[in-house]
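TL;DR need structure tokens for one chain.
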Amino acid sequence: MGAMKSRFEGTQVNLRRITPADADDLVRHIGDRDISRQTFIPYPYGRKDARRFIAWSQEQWRKKTAFPFSIEDRRTGRVVGGIGLHRINFLHKNAELGYWLNKRYRGRGVMTEAVHLILAFAFRELKFERVYGHVFVSNDASVRVLRRVGFKREGYLRRSYFHRRRWQDSHLYAILKQDWRPPTGKPTRPKARRSTASRTKTPRRIVTTRRTAPARRTVTARRSVPARRRA
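>> reply
TL;DR here they are.
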């Protein structure tokens, strides 16, 4: 396998390889109980954890046994999340997807875009045929992301993970290369907000126009028709 592209640019975020300079951002944004509840990332998360994770990430890239990426905010250049392909199987051309995102960046379509970007890596760079992911049944937000991108639910796995001192059931979701539909437009959240604001103003003007115009036409029609009949 030749050199692989390791940076993917989106409209809100970029995906790139993790570097030692990301340690502060990792500590700042992973230290969240919600992330720990839905992943195997420890809480609290300290600098030692970040250094260990960065070293592991670089080793995985060298061995091509996993491909972890940072999710980088395009506006600030700060790392706000992570996403990666694990359990790499070059023979059968598939991999498992995993990701996390700081809560302040959720609900903006950020993770949806990040998943599309890593699928471009999986299907175009690695030439894989299938990407799958296991999601705890309590993680409704993650399920919505996968469905939005086009993943299909393939199974319900009972007591599949021992997490936080109890057994967890999980969903199995997957997407095939032939079923993936990359985004065609530029649905950035900042643009969406501006267009929403413009649409909010526009309907008010249109409604005002429609109310004024029909009222005049209706009154004119009612006056003209009876006048003709009387004549």
